[in-house]
Design brief:
The chain is of the alpha/beta class. It is about 45% helix and about 15% strand. The protein folds into three domains: about 140 residues, Rossmann fold, CATH 3.40.50.1390; about 120 residues, Hect, E3 ligase catalytic domain fold, CATH 3.90.1750.20; about 160 residues, no CATH class.
Length: about 475
């Protein structure tokens, strides 16, 4: 049937992107960018029967290398894609978009996330067709392979360097400065005295919370420094998280840690091993004592978020006391209790076992670059959706507030690193609060387990940590729930 006699053709809004590496010839009346645009317009005109229409906006980058993402025309293009103004991007050749396969992959991922097609005029590369999508998948497969190879090389280099005791960067640490020439840690004597004072004062107080209060009372702050780009970073008041990080930092012993292994560092130690052992002896005693004290009062770690994958019913806590007086905890499928245990293959699961699995998975997020990136991207999507809703509703004040609280990937990484380092020192109730803040649902199957994370929970957590509230005795402040893919 002729399309003119069927439903109207959907309008495809086409953005033309052009780029030239050098500024040579750009002052001519008809230059390379004009030539690229003319070819793209001709191609779009040939697809008018499919509803294609060239947008009047010019996304041009004259004098910008394709090996960099720092291009104003490309930035405007991606912004308009984020705003839903574009359905298809047309270029003269693929390398006009990017000469870096990794950057090209990132750009295409943005296109796909917003349902935008990509067309190269001279190379018959068109993701609106099945062959174009196949070609794209092949390119992305090679890009993924390249990413993994680069990642392995970086990890191997970091591991080799740390085995030699080299400092591999990261946020500056109280007690040390970084020699930008040698890239080594050198002792900052004034700050080193504060570090020694913290360890000695902890031996007297025995409490990170009391120690933080005393340091704040005396006017001490965390590390102040200037970034490599010249931006000052002021120290902030101490909290319990800062204390735990200081007391567990092996740099102060003159060591470098990598994947649980300790290596002699190139830098000098600030504290003695005797002082370290005394402080950690108190930490271990505190952990054991408070664990025993709060164990019976601690709510079920997964209460309210654990469900049976077979019956799609909630699972509740149940207890069994053996003749030895030992208590065993179980999560029981509500559907099985109502309809009979023979109707559900899941029935019951040992609470301790499944809680350990969930906690391991959560801590894996803290140290996994891939999972951090996925969580960060999910949080960004929620932010973008919320900002678009506020723009539509013209809620200027709320929009400004949300923009000012946007997460950076560095904040995500640092927040997870903080949590990983203090996790074992948290009260069970604090661990439960974190689990409920970061995890939306735990679904149990007969031979499997699925964990669904809350992206907005991460945003709430980091906002609190940015405000220096940290993780305190009463748990974290309650955040807003939001759905996010696992």
């Amino acid at each position: 049937m002729n399309k003119s006699n069927s439903q109207p053709v959907k309008l495809i809004r086409c953005a033309i992107y052009t780029r030239k590496s050098t500024e040579e010839g750009l002052d001519q009346e008809f230059n390379s960018l004009d030539s690229q645009r003319e070819a793209a317009e001709a191609f779009i005109a040939s697809q008018v029967h499919e509803g294609w229409k060239a947008l009047p906006d010019h996304y041009d980058d004259g004098g910008f290398s394709g090996g960099s993402m720092e291009r104003p025309g490309l930035a405007r293009l991606l912004e308009d894609i984020e705003r839903g103004k574009i359905d298809c991007v047309v270029v003269y050749k693929v390398d006009r978009l990017s000469r870096s396969l990794l950057d090209f992959t990132k750009i295409i991922e943005t296109f796909e996330r917003h349902g935008v097609s990509f067309v190269s005029v001279t190379q018959q590369f068109n993701t609106t067709s099945s062959m174009g999508r196949l070609t794209l998948n092949i390119l992305l497969s090679f890009a993924q392979f390249e990413r993994e190879i680069i990642g392995e090389r970086i990890r191997d280099k970091v591991a080799a360097s740390k085995r030699k005791g080299k400092y591999m960067g990261g946020p500056p640490v109280l007690g040390y400065d970084v020699d930008r020439t040698s890239k080594k840690l050198v002792i900052n004597e004034k700050e080193a005295e504060l570090v020694r004072y913290i360890f000695k004062l902890f031996l007297k107080t025995g409490s990170p919370t009391l120690l933080a209060k005393e340091l704040n009372k005396q006017g001490h702050t965390t590390k102040s420094y200037v970034t490599m780009t010249g931006h000052p970073h002021e120290g902030c008041p101490w909290n319990k998280t800062h204390i735990y990080r200081t007391l567990h930092n092996h740099l102060y012993l003159g060591e470098v840690v990598h994947q649980g292994n300790h290596y002699p560092g190139e830098h000098e130690a600030i504290i003695s091993r005797d002082l370290w052992r005394k402080a950690h002896s108190i930490l271990e005693q505190n952990c054991a004592a408070r664990g025993a004290h709060t164990k019976a009062k601690t709510p079920a770690l997964l209460k309210g978020i654990i469900r049976c994958g077979h019956c799609d019913h909630a699972m509740t806590m149940s207890f069994t006391r053996k003749p030895s007086k030992k208590v065993y905890r179980y999560y029981v499928c509500v559907g099985a209790t109502k309809k009979g245990y023979d109707t559900c293959p899941v029935r019951t699961v040992a609470a301790g076992d499944i809680e350990e699995v969930v906690k391991r998975q959560l801590r894996a997020v803290f140290t996994s670059p891939e999972l951090i990136e996925r969580t960060y991207q999910a949080a960004k999507k929620i932010e973008a959706d919320e900002m678009e809703r506020l723009r539509t509703g013209k809620a200027d004040l709320e929009l400004q507030t949300l923009q000012s609280e946007k997460l950076t990937e560095r904040e995500v990484i640092e927040a997870f690193d903080n949590l990983d380092q203090v996790w074992d020192e948290l009260f069970p109730a604090e661990q439960a609060r974190l689990v409920h803040l970061l995890i939306e649902r735990v679904t149990v199957y007969q031979d499997d387990l699925n964990i669904k994370f809350r992206a907005n929970g991460l945003q709430t957590l980091i906002a609190e940590m940015k405000n220096d509230e940290g993780i305190h005795e009463g748990g974290l402040e309650h955040g807003h729930e939001a759905h996010a893919g696992s």
